[in-house]
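User: hey, got a sec? need Isomerase folded
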Amino acid sequence: MPQITIDYSDIVEDAFDREGFARALHEATVEIAAAKPEACKTQFRPSAYTAFGYEDPGARGHAIVHVAIGLLAGRSDETKARLTQAALELLREHVADTGAALHASAEVRDLDPSYRKSDR
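Assistant: Yep! Here you go:
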């Protein structure tokens, strides 16, 4: 915990400072949601195919970045909202303009009570 997943259109691959974004998001998560730095884990998943509305996907005029943050239950709605807002602001700083319209979103959800982790 926290479990962070970033899905993004591959057309922002070269424009996305993933290392800088992960570090900044981890710092924000520690500050805002009282997470431990060593607990922050982030996976980036590029998508080769993005469909937007009725646009021909081959036109590649739109890019999507979605940040999903899973936290153990107990954070207030205000804390979750502050963290999602911080994630969106950090995306603006860490994704350079590609010429495509960037559609960024973020959410914070409670991990299911069945959540467990294992380290080796």
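Quick note: Helices lie at 18-33, 77-94. Let me know if you need anything else on Isomerase.
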